[in-house]
Specification:
Layout lengths: L1 H21 L17 E5 L11 E5 L2 E3 L4 E3 L10 E6 L3 E2 L1 E2 L10 E15 L8 E8 L24 E7 L12 E6 L7 E5 L6 E10 L4 E8 L8 E6 L2 H4 L3 E9 L5 E16 L19 H36 L15 E2 L11 E2 H4 L2 H8 L5 H7 L8 E5 L2 E7 L5 E7 L4 H14 L10 E5 L6 E5 L6 H5 L10 H21 L3 E3 L8 E3 L5 E3 L6 E3 L6 E2 L12 H6 L1 E2 L1 H17 L16 H11 L16 H14 L10 H8 L14 E6 L21 E6 L4
Antiparallel strand pairs: 1-17, 2-5, 3-4, 4-17, 5-16, 6-16, 7-8, 8-13, 8-17, 9-10, 9-16, 10-11, 11-12, 13-14, 14-15, 18-19, 20-21, 21-22, 22-24, 23-24, 25-28, 26-27, 29-30, 31-32
Helix pairs in contact: 1-3, 9-11, 9-14, 11-13
């Protein structure tokens, strides 16, 4: 013990010394404020002296009605498909970067706005489509095809960068809360990041909204009061909005409103706005500037200290770290003869996935995730004894399916919760890589259309992942079963397509991480009791940087028939390769056929993509509708889905839509006049080895190099 204590005491002393130096309160002169123009106004449109009409930029069908003292946002003569906007003429500057030459500090802008408005439907039972307060890049015009449910803010391609707070009385089935009036905050598309459902006919009459954005905390909040309905309590919603990643530096701000085939009037009665800026404390540490006449620290001295002391502290910290690593390495050598014990508490630093045969290498927690996530993973550890009892010692009758990385069993926890236990293959390096991918992602990803990983067990030789149980198993077990597919009516198929699209948008654009799934297919979409879809199996998923467009791998792993051509041929993958897989899956859902051209002995010799393209070009696409539907489908929706699918399977990744654009297109039947698909490509590869997949049997997955590769162009006849 004595020999161990001396290095420890030395380590503590060095750490304390470094911390003392780093915690010195460095006085840095207050930086000059930037020359940002702040915006303040209080317009009452019933009082002409309170505003100047030249301060307002009116677009589309918007009209200032001076007699009534209101701004009419949309047509007043019951005209359908009307769009109007009104914005302030000045741009709002959302941030300023630091300027070393002038000493100007980095700042962020906060703002608050209060406005009263009136929604007046011509028919209380036929109200549409709503209005929004929005911010978009300066200057800004009304996007094409943005009427109706797109609220005049977003376009069908998903290219619009805008933030909107929407007041929506119409239910767009593709993205809105079911059948109710609602408010929402939209950060990237018309698919709201947060919504609040309201009682029917709530968004009628006069209302007052208060919206506040805090540039420091990045919180955007809405409070809505129902002035004409005292029975309704005020509504509050808020969400995190990093405007630096969502918007350009200068934005327009104001209102937008639309109608569709149903009509209502949208009126702005009054509008006030205030902006302010704060020093960005994440970039600059600021204190009061000392008066040089009193002998305080000069700006030059402050800057020197601010630069020098952290460098000195960093060097000392590096020395401490080096000593610590040397000490740990020496201690590890001394303890190498001690038996390894499986850790069971939060104090664990590493765990072993090694089999007794020694074929499986060590896997340290530090390989998996950062220290903040270690606690998250540790909190979901489940004892092996519990899972053995839950699955009746992994009895054959509890087997749900078998995949390339192991077997999946059904189990029941002591409290009665049904679970699916994925038992990874012992001694398999593939199993370890999948485990690492799953554990890295589980700490961050939470979405209703992603399957939840609720536990993990890493005891003895076992590597077990515990998921929520999906009663209807995977999509392929229902869709490609002659009897079960009859349970998938058209409404359920639409629900599945929309749910998977929302889950993919979350992975690609909306989560804290940016994730490419790489193996999206019918067998990796699980269905709960109500056939709500959940994307599963993140063993092949890859994290992407926000500025990263694609990655290349020499180990092509995935499922043929779903793999994009650039991935199958060159190992290039991106969010657009997931879009390709999604397009294939849509065609399978619509037709009830597998895209199995890669199976040489298939009874269906023609592949699905070429079959769909042939019928698309001849105008006979409805002939491919799954016979199990008995002809019961919405013809327009079917054409919409096939059109989106063909856009997703375009040859060039750049020609495929983003998933946010897909979600917008799923909600519109009018965008395709300008978005006709070109002929797609498909890829065929003969495989050395195939594996079956989770929750099902008969799915083919390759994790080895293929013998031959061929890209085939589809030619219409």
């Amino acid at each position: 013990m004595g020999s161990r204590a001396r290095p420890t005491h030395l380590l503590v002393a060095l750490c304390l010394t470094s911390l003392c130096l780093l915690s010195i309160n460095v006085v840095v002169p207050a930086a000059a404020a930037p020359a940002t123009s702040l915006i303040h106004f209080d317009f009452d449109f019933s009082n002409s002296s309170s505003f100047n009409v030249d301060d307002l930029n009116q677009q589309g069908d918007t009209q200032l009605n001076g007699t009534a003292g209101i701004i009419e946002m949309t047509h007043t003569d019951n005209t359908t498909f009307s769009t109007g906007r009104v914005t302030h003429r000045l741009p709002l500057r959302l941030w300023e970067d630091a300027d070393e030459a002038t000493g100007a500090a980095a700042t962020v802008t906060s703002f608050s706005t209060r406005f009263s408005f009136f929604i007046d439907p011509t028919d209380r039972d036929r109200r549409a489509d709503g209005m929004a307060f929005f911010l978009a890049g300066f200057p800004s015009t009304i996007p094409d095809f943005s009427y109706g449910g797109l609220l005049g803010v977003y376009n069908a391609t998903g290219a619009t960068r805008a933030i909107a707070v929407e007041f929506d009385p119409f239910h767009n089935w593709q993205w809105d809360p079911s059948g109710t009036d609602h408010v929402g905050i939209d950060l990237k598309s018309v698919v709201s990041d947060i919504t609040r459902s309201l009682p029917d006919h709530s968004l009628v009459g006069k209302m007052t909204a208060y919206i506040q954005f805090d540039g420091v905390t990045k919180m955007l909040a809405l409070t809505l009061n129902f002035d004409d309905n005292a029975t309704l309590a005020p509504v509050h919603i808020s969400t995190h909005a990093d405007v630096r990643t969502l918007l350009p530096q200068e934005v327009v701000f104001g209102f937008s409103a639309t109608t569709g085939s149903w009509v209502e009037r949208h009126r702005i009665l009054s509008w006030s706005f205030n902006s302010s800026y704060s020093i960005n404390s994440t970039l600059t540490s600021v204190d009061k500037r000392p008066d040089s006449s009193t002998g305080g620290t000069t700006p030059r001295t402050g800057r020197v200290l601010a630069i020098t002391l952290p460098i000195v502290g960093a060097i000392l910290a590096l020395v401490v770290l080096t000593c610590f690593c040397f000490w740990r390495r020496t201690s590890a050598r001394k303890d190498s003869s001690m038996p390894f014990k499986t850790p069971t508490s939060k104090a664990l630093v590493r765990f072993s996935l090694a089999s007794r045969s020694g074929n499986c290498p060590f896997l340290r927690l530090t390989e998996l995730t950062n220290p903040d996530e270690i606690q998250s993973i540790d909190s979901i550890l489940i004892p092996l004894s519990t899972l053995r009892i839950a699955a009746d010692n992994f009895a054959e009758r509890n087997k749900l399916g078998e995949g390339g990385f192991g077997v999946v069993y059904k189990g029941v926890l002591p409290e009665g919760q049904e679970i699916a236990i994925k038992r990874l293959s012992q001694g398999s390096r593939q199993g370890i890589e999948e485990l690492k991918a799953e554990l890295v992602l589980v700490a961050k990803l939470r979405h209703k259309n992603l399957v939840s990983l609720i536990g993990v067990c890493l005891e003895e030789d076992e590597k077990l992942l515990v998921y929520e149980y999906m009663p209807n198993k995977s999509l392929d077990t229902v869709l490609f079963d002659f009897e079960k597919r009859k349970d998938l009516d058209w409404a359920k198929r639409i629900k599945i397509v929309n749910g998977v699209a929302r889950g993919l948008q979350y992975l690609h654009e909306d989560s804290q991480l940016r994730v490419v799934h790489r193996d999206l297919k019918a067998s990796n979409v699980l269905l709960d009791f109500d056939y709500n879809p959940k994307i599963s199996d993140f063993g092949l998923a890859k994290l992407f940087g926000w500025d990263q467009t694609q990655e290349v791998t020499s180990h092509i792993a995935g499922t043929y028939g779903y793999m994009a051509p650039e991935y199958a041929m060159r190992g290039q993958y991106s969010v657009k390769s997931d879009a390709f897989s999604f397009g294939v899956m849509i065609l399978e859902i619509v037709t009830g056929r597998r895209n199995n051209s890669f199976i040489s002995n298939s009874e269906q010799s023609i592949d699905l993509l070429s079959l769909v393209w042939e019928h698309w070009t001849t105008g006979s696409i409805e002939e491919l509708l799954d016979p199990a539907l008995g002809g019961h489908s919405a013809s327009g929706q079917m054409l919409t889905l096939v059109n989106i699918a063909l856009l997703c399977v375009q040859d060039k990744p750049a020609d495929r839509p983003t998933m946010s654009a897909v979600n917008v297109m799923l909600g519109s039947n009018t965008v395709f006049a300008t978005q006709a698909p070109s002929r797609p490509t498909f890829c065929i590869q003969e495989m050395d080895g195939i594996d079956t997949d989770m929750y099902s049997r008969g799915e083919f997955q390759s994790t080895s190099n293929s013998k031959t590769k061929a890209v085939t162009w589809l030619q219409p006849r």
